[in-house]
Batch of 2 targets.
Target 1
Amino acid sequence: DSGVTQTPKHLITATGQRVTLRCSPRSGDLSVYWYQQSLDQGLQFLIQYYNGEERAKGNILERFSAQQFPDLHSELNLSSLELGDSALYFCASSGGGDQPQHFGDGTRLSIL
Amino acid sequence: KNEVEQSPQNLTAQEGEFITINCSYSVGISALHWLQQHPGGGIVSLFMLSSGKKKHGRLIATINIQEKHSSLHITASHPRDSAVYICAVRSRSGAGSYQLTFGKGTKLSVIP
């Protein structure tokens, strides 16, 4: 058990819809990272938050946004969903700096 | 060309064999991760290293910073080692922040 909790585990929705994925980091971890894993692209870094502030952006689409709340949990919002957004979305947390990242079990998003 | 290249893509081994998975990268990094992803999808961080060698049980990871190369070795392989092994390099993406760039993974199957 990594200590990182992601909900929901599975999400099925339709094109054009909007969904919110939630991540609770390990106790004490200030950094949260979001990743997307699709069959054709593999794992890709989306965005990082540290103690409520955005720290780094990767290959995140404009239709996607994220935030980290004062209690350090984070949400990834995906809107105007397309078939190609079907993927596993992972959250990871770390203590920041040189600390290793710990991954949640992922949310599997299926767009019909 | 991917910044992180892994070889082989697929590997089948007999139980008990010594296994090596290789990772080469082309960017400057502050650390390299080896991750394990089981068929259920969950990701476990095996090692994070920035120099030399680390050992945990039957797993050994080495890195050569000058040659931009890392290897993951599994001694006395077992069917429960069957998984996808992913190399990820950590590089700076801004002041105090880092991001991971992933290889496409090596799918290992260990046959009894």
Target 2
Amino acid sequence: DIVMTQSPDSLAVSLGERATINCKSSQSVLYSSNNKNYLAWYQQKPGQPPKLLIYWAATRESGVPDRFSGSGSGTDFTLTISSLQAEDVALYYCQQYFGFPLTFGGGTKVEIK
Amino acid sequence: QIQLVQSGPEVKKPGTSVKVSCKASGFTFSSSAVQWVRQTRGQRLEWIGSIVVGSENTNYAQKFQERVTLSRDMSTTTAYMEVSSLRSEDTAVYYCAADLGRETADYWGQGTLVTVSS
């Protein structure tokens, strides 16, 4: 199984400041035939199901604010919130969909400092 | 709009089974896949398996292979997950999610709390 490791477990950021979440996979999730990274990011607010934010490591889902961006390739990935807003307080998860079983990172809790 | 509506909470005794439904609307069900994910109290997300609606092809995480059955009814655009031989560690919120062709969980149901307790 591909193990996904997120860091940090939690972070507190001031409103308007940048938040950065890291995700590392135990093996590459880059598919060479199409040059796509099979890595997604989800946001989960309290009492709600997860919501897809980013897929193919860097493509924002429709309707997701452009302050959210994804980057990285191979085994190392980053989710950046460029200017944290109050409504961004949530848990964030990375997930690989390169191979079965699909696996998630342990989650990162983002709070306001 | 795209919706996935899951069945209500369940309380089950150890050793019994539970069947959770996931009613889909707002997209072409037959061209999708449905993933099932659970979330325990510790907040960790765990992928259970997926079913390709059109072909009924299924994939399961190995730890669930023996105890989980995924199915679908195209006439009612509903997907199902049955878990047998329940144990207390299966207490969790179970989610279905529609995969509209990118192999990601694009839209999620509201979740179904399954509590296993004697």
